[in-house]
Amino acid sequence: MDWLDGTDFGHYALCPAPYLKSWNGTEADAVTPEHVGKFVLPDHGDVLTLGGQGLPVACLERMMTFVRWVACDDDAGLEDAVEQAMNSHEWQDAFEITLGGPYVLLDSGALGAEVGEDEVIRVNVPHGRYRVRSLLIRPAMGEFFLERLIAI
Questions:
Q1: pLDDT at site 116
Q2: What is the rounded distance in angstroms from the CA atom of residue 35 to the CA atom of residue 65?
Protein backbone atom coordinates (compact mmCIF):
# COMPACT_ATOMS: atom_id res chain seq x y z
CA MET A 1 0.00 0.00 0.00
CA ASP A 2 1.13 3.53 -0.72
CA TRP A 3 0.92 5.73 2.38
CA LEU A 4 1.17 9.46 2.96
CA ASP A 5 3.17 9.82 6.16
CA GLY A 6 0.88 12.21 7.96
CA THR A 7 -0.45 15.71 7.88
CA ASP A 8 1.01 18.69 9.69
CA PHE A 9 -2.31 20.53 9.45
CA GLY A 10 -4.68 17.90 10.85
CA HIS A 11 -6.63 17.19 7.66
CA TYR A 12 -6.20 15.68 4.26
CA ALA A 13 -8.26 16.97 1.36
CA LEU A 14 -9.43 15.13 -1.72
CA CYS A 15 -8.64 18.01 -4.06
CA PRO A 16 -10.01 17.99 -7.61
CA ALA A 17 -6.94 17.38 -9.78
CA PRO A 18 -7.62 20.35 -12.12
CA TYR A 19 -7.51 22.65 -9.05
CA LEU A 20 -4.28 21.26 -7.55
CA LYS A 21 -1.91 24.01 -8.74
CA SER A 22 -4.33 26.64 -7.35
CA TRP A 23 -4.75 24.92 -3.95
CA ASN A 24 -3.45 27.49 -1.43
CA GLY A 25 -3.70 25.48 1.78
CA THR A 26 -6.50 27.44 3.42
CA GLU A 27 -9.51 25.97 1.63
CA ALA A 28 -10.27 23.43 4.40
CA ASP A 29 -9.67 25.82 7.33
CA ALA A 30 -13.37 25.91 8.24
CA VAL A 31 -13.61 22.11 8.52
CA THR A 32 -14.13 21.00 12.11
CA PRO A 33 -11.61 18.55 13.58
CA GLU A 34 -13.69 15.44 12.94
CA HIS A 35 -12.58 12.21 11.31
CA VAL A 36 -14.33 13.02 8.06
CA GLY A 37 -15.84 16.21 6.68
CA LYS A 38 -16.71 18.10 3.54
CA PHE A 39 -16.88 21.58 2.12
CA VAL A 40 -17.71 23.16 -1.23
CA LEU A 41 -14.92 24.49 -3.42
CA PRO A 42 -16.46 27.16 -5.68
CA ASP A 43 -16.54 26.06 -9.32
CA HIS A 44 -15.19 22.60 -8.39
CA GLY A 45 -17.88 21.09 -6.17
CA ASP A 46 -17.64 19.05 -2.99
CA VAL A 47 -14.31 18.26 -1.35
CA LEU A 48 -13.91 15.37 1.09
CA THR A 49 -11.64 15.87 4.10
CA LEU A 50 -10.11 13.25 6.36
CA GLY A 51 -8.52 14.19 9.61
CA GLY A 52 -8.74 15.47 13.08
CA GLN A 53 -5.38 13.81 13.66
CA GLY A 54 -2.21 13.73 11.59
CA LEU A 55 -2.38 10.00 10.87
CA PRO A 56 -0.79 8.30 7.85
CA VAL A 57 -3.35 7.62 5.11
CA ALA A 58 -3.74 5.27 2.13
CA CYS A 59 -6.48 4.66 -0.40
CA LEU A 60 -7.86 1.30 -1.49
CA GLU A 61 -9.41 2.59 -4.70
CA ARG A 62 -10.99 -0.72 -5.72
CA MET A 63 -13.00 -0.60 -2.46
CA MET A 64 -13.41 3.20 -2.56
CA THR A 65 -12.04 3.25 1.00
CA PHE A 66 -9.54 5.52 2.70
CA VAL A 67 -7.50 3.91 5.47
CA ARG A 68 -5.82 5.86 8.26
CA TRP A 69 -3.19 4.19 10.42
CA VAL A 70 -4.04 4.71 14.12
CA ALA A 71 -1.82 2.30 16.04
CA CYS A 72 -0.02 -0.76 14.71
CA ASP A 73 3.33 -2.24 13.83
CA ASP A 74 2.80 -2.80 10.09
CA ASP A 75 0.13 -3.11 7.42
CA ALA A 76 0.68 -6.78 6.49
CA GLY A 77 -2.76 -8.31 5.95
CA LEU A 78 -4.51 -4.94 6.11
CA GLU A 79 -6.22 -5.23 2.71
CA ASP A 80 -7.76 -8.55 3.80
CA ALA A 81 -8.91 -6.96 7.08
CA VAL A 82 -10.52 -4.08 5.20
CA GLU A 83 -12.20 -6.53 2.80
CA GLN A 84 -13.65 -8.42 5.79
CA ALA A 85 -14.87 -5.14 7.32
CA MET A 86 -16.95 -4.30 4.22
CA ASN A 87 -19.84 -6.44 5.54
CA SER A 88 -19.69 -5.11 9.10
CA HIS A 89 -22.90 -3.75 10.62
CA GLU A 90 -20.86 -1.25 12.64
CA TRP A 91 -20.31 1.30 9.84
CA GLN A 92 -21.52 4.78 10.81
CA ASP A 93 -23.12 7.05 8.21
CA ALA A 94 -21.44 10.46 8.06
CA PHE A 95 -23.04 12.41 5.17
CA GLU A 96 -23.68 12.41 1.44
CA ILE A 97 -21.32 13.99 -1.06
CA THR A 98 -21.13 14.46 -4.84
CA LEU A 99 -17.79 13.55 -6.38
CA GLY A 100 -16.40 12.55 -9.73
CA GLY A 101 -13.24 12.58 -11.77
CA PRO A 102 -9.55 12.67 -10.95
CA TYR A 103 -8.56 13.81 -7.45
CA VAL A 104 -5.40 14.31 -5.48
CA LEU A 105 -5.36 13.42 -1.78
CA LEU A 106 -2.98 15.81 -0.05
CA ASP A 107 -2.24 17.50 3.25
CA SER A 108 -4.97 20.16 3.33
CA GLY A 109 -2.54 22.88 4.45
CA ALA A 110 0.01 22.28 1.71
CA LEU A 111 0.43 24.56 -1.28
CA GLY A 112 -0.71 22.55 -4.29
CA ALA A 113 1.85 24.13 -6.61
CA GLU A 114 4.65 22.94 -4.31
CA VAL A 115 3.66 19.35 -3.52
CA GLY A 116 5.60 16.52 -5.12
CA GLU A 117 4.20 13.23 -6.39
CA ASP A 118 5.47 11.47 -3.26
CA GLU A 119 3.32 13.84 -1.14
CA VAL A 120 -0.01 12.97 -2.77
CA ILE A 121 -2.17 9.99 -3.65
CA ARG A 122 -3.99 10.16 -6.96
CA VAL A 123 -7.56 8.81 -6.86
CA ASN A 124 -10.13 8.47 -9.63
CA VAL A 125 -13.72 8.60 -8.37
CA PRO A 126 -16.57 7.67 -10.75
CA HIS A 127 -19.03 10.56 -11.10
CA GLY A 128 -21.96 10.26 -8.72
CA ARG A 129 -23.51 10.82 -5.35
CA TYR A 130 -21.96 8.92 -2.43
CA ARG A 131 -22.75 8.13 1.18
CA VAL A 132 -19.64 8.46 3.33
CA ARG A 133 -19.42 5.82 6.07
CA SER A 134 -16.81 5.47 8.84
CA LEU A 135 -15.53 2.55 10.85
CA LEU A 136 -12.70 1.88 13.30
CA ILE A 137 -11.30 -1.61 12.80
CA ARG A 138 -9.00 -3.51 15.13
CA PRO A 139 -7.45 -6.41 13.21
CA ALA A 140 -4.63 -8.41 14.80
CA MET A 141 -1.99 -5.92 13.62
CA GLY A 142 -3.55 -2.80 15.22
CA GLU A 143 -6.17 -0.07 14.69
CA PHE A 144 -7.24 1.74 11.52
CA PHE A 145 -9.91 4.33 10.68
CA LEU A 146 -11.80 3.57 7.48
CA GLU A 147 -13.84 6.03 5.42
CA ARG A 148 -15.78 4.46 2.59
CA LEU A 149 -17.61 5.97 -0.39
CA ILE A 150 -20.77 4.07 -1.29
CA ALA A 151 -22.55 5.01 -4.50
CA ILE A 152 -26.21 5.89 -3.97
A1: 95
A2: 14
